[in-house]
Amino acid sequence: MQSPADGLWWAPRAWIGGRWEPSVLLHAGSDGRWAEVNIGQPAPAAATQLPGPVLPGLVNAHSHAFQRAFLGLSERRDTAQDDFWSWRDRMYRVALRITPAQLRAVAAQLYRELLQGGYTHVCEFHYLHHQPDGSPYPHEAEMARALADAAQGAGIGLTLLPVLYERAGFEQSSLRPDQRRFATDTARVLRLRDAIRSWQLPGVDAGVAVHSLRAASAESITALSAAVADDPAPLHLHIAEQTAEIDACLAATGCRPIEWLCRHLRPDARWQLVHATHATPAEIDAVAATGAGVVLCPGTEANLGDGLCDLPRWLASGTPLSVGSDSHVLRDWPQELRWLEYGQRLLLRQRNVAANPKQQPATAARLFDRMLLGGAAAAGQTQAGLQPGARADLLLLDPQDPSLLGLPASHTLDATVFGSGPAPIAAVMVAGRWVHGDAMALTRTKVDADRIQRDFVAAMREMHDQA
Questions:
Q1: Which of 152, 236, 242, 311 has the highest Cβ tally under 10 A?
Q2: Has 121 been annotated as catalytic?
Q3: Domain end: 378, 412, 429, which one?
Q4: Which of 194, 152, 197 is nearest to 431 (CA)?
């Protein structure tokens, strides 16, 4: 076996350019990026031969890590009405309680689970900034640092997005008392971004975010957009997730949220519109014309009763699309893609809605490739997939997984998305280092999964014993 520093791997099949290619030799450079990717190569003696097919890792383009601590705690109804807004009120109780140490423990557990689910990078939509009483921490970026430390310990890549959050709604001038930990202005968001970058942690970068049009004034959103005009990093915001949000925006501005955004702020390819569930055909066309991306979160959107997006039109428009796990009711991308397609099947009473018979007849392949490219843009990455220059991330599939046994090789991705329970992923590489699975020993990676799990259990008991 070669020295782990050599970073030379051979796979019997690899997903490259939208199809399975045979006998692929992959060389990860010392910078954690692919130096060479060669198709149709016999396995050299110096290379480690991988036992199964490999996929590039996906970016999880939307995460609220602290909400992992809320998983399973909102699935009962004790009032006449239960919807997104009542869920949010209950979620705030966790947001008001969690400490930096607990956040670090919860996020580390979550990030390990995301790796197991095939994500190699996560975009953290970070608005939990202050102490429980609303006062700033002595170190302003205390909570952001907890997330960065968690990502470093778990081995996942991270784009931290400090969030502009200044009011409770269109007609409100300030936050509600139970939103006091979220308060930011443009200057604070920029300071947090710069602090994160100053740490120079491997695999950790920063962009910025706006919580939503209802949560920040038009003047503040415009000021933040202008302040980052020369910054190539992404800018994310929630938009058009709930019909009540559409109604409130119409009442306050005379426009629907996406309509207002495209008309007044002119987003570009750095912008990532999270959810965009309730978009009209004209709004979809307007977003496509700007080059902005859309982040879909099917598992959370189903859990919260948000509704279903117009997936066929988003796909046809050419809009960059990515996938996020948001509140983390699902934590692997095969399930997210399955939910995305199945929601459309139930709505339209058709099958293989996301497929394109003329270009890509395989539903899983079309969705995966769109999310691969769109996810890279959402994270601020300029390259994606198994190609020279892209970060050396890959997923080793388990050829002995029951969902893949005896299957024609050309249908491996189809079965991964539509035929598996847990994602059939045997090992995960990030930046040339194995961070999950038995292959970790090949690069002597140190991820203390047992400690991460113990810390998570302790944090959950501390938080919820106080409830």
A1: 236
A2: no
A3: 378
A4: 152
How many domains is the chain partitioned into structurally?
2
pTM as predicted:
0.95
Residues 20-63 pLDDT 10s? 999 999 999 999 999 999 999 999 999 999 999 999 999 999 99
Same domain, yes or no, for 45 and 64?
no
- Asked whether residue 465 is assigned to any structural domain, the reply reads no
Q: Which of 326, 369, 398, 455 is catalytic?
A: 326
Over the stretch 57-112, which tens digit does the pLDDT of each residue have? 999 999 999 999 999 888 898 888 888 888 898 899 999 999 999 999 999 999 99
Residue-by-residue DSSP string for 340-402: HHHHHHHHHT-S-TT-BTTTB--HHHHHHHHHHHHHHHHTT-S--SSSTTSB--EEEE-TTST
Q: Does residue 169 share a domain with residue 282?
A: yes
d(C-alpha 159, C-alpha 176), whole Å: 28
Query: At 265, phi and psi to the nearest 5?
Result: -115, -15
What residues contact residue 133 under an 8 Å CB cut-off, 6+ apart? 180
219 within domain boundaries: yes
Q: Which two tokens stand for residue 391?
A: 């970060």
Backbone angles phi, psi at 212, to 5 degrees: -175, 170
Tell me whether residue 314 is exposed, middle or buried, using C-beta atoms within 10 angstroms of its C-beta: 0 to 12, 13 to 18, 19 or more.
Answer: buried
CATH code for the domain of 405: 2.30.40.10
The beta-strand segments (E) located in 127-198 are: 157-164
- Strand 34-38 to strand 58-63: parallel, antiparallel, or no bridges (unpaired)? unpaired
- Look up 326 and say whether it is catalytic: yes
Both tokens of residue 172? 């409100």
Is residue 453 a part of any domain in this protein?
A: no
The reply to whether 14 falls in a domain is yes
Tell me if 293 sits within 8 A of 378, measured CB to CB.
yes
